[in-house]
Each structure stands twice: as structure tokens, then as C-alpha cells.
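Project standup — Tuesday

K.O.: blocked on the structure for the chain from last sprint. Re-posting the sequence here as requested.
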Amino acid sequence: VQLQASGGGLVQPGGSLRLSCTASTSIFSRNVMAWYRQLPGKQRELVASITVYGVTKYGGSVKGRFAISRDDAKNTVYLQMDSLKPEDTAVYYCNVEPVNGRLWGQGTQVTVSS
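H.V.: unblocked you, prediction finished:
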């Protein structure tokens, strides 16, 4: 079972997007959920994570601009991205932390450009 991220798109610098990812109850209720991204030519990196208790963690470059949240009733994790910059352009993926390689989906493209 792969985790499918959605909500990406083209946005101007300074704009906002909200990404979503829905998982099965067995995955969602037992794991730290996380967002990762892969910038062009770079390795995949952790963007943000959230524990089952709601404790969050962020990568340094997005701290203060992105917010991760989870809706336990919907088994859905969100990534609210504000004040987007061109350097945020990447494919964004949903997975657990630590990563489970079998859960990688296709990701959703986020492009920040004027």
C-alpha cells in the first residue's frame, strides 16, 4: 500500500498551498507521519513530521513557514505551506518516520515561480 500525496501545483512566490495524504488506519494510528521532498538533483529530505500525540518537527529551511497537522478522524496528514519560495520547488511525498520504502507513492509536484 502506497501513500499518495495530493494538493500540489504552481504558485507564485509568497503564496500558499496545502498538501494532503490519507493512510489506512493501521498505518496512521501507529506511526509518526511525515512529509518529505525531493528537490531537482538532490536527495529526498525530511520536511516535517508529527507524532500520534501531535508533537511536530520541522526541517530548518521550512520552520516558521510550513505547518504539519493530522486529522485522526480522517486518517489524513496535511502540510500547510505559506510564504513559499522558489527553492521550495520539489516533489513532495508522504511517508512515515523512519521511512518505510514500501510506502513511497508518486508524490505531488510543487512549483514556486512567478
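K.O.: great, moving the ticket to review. The mean pLDDT is 95. The two ends are 36 Å apart (CA to CA).
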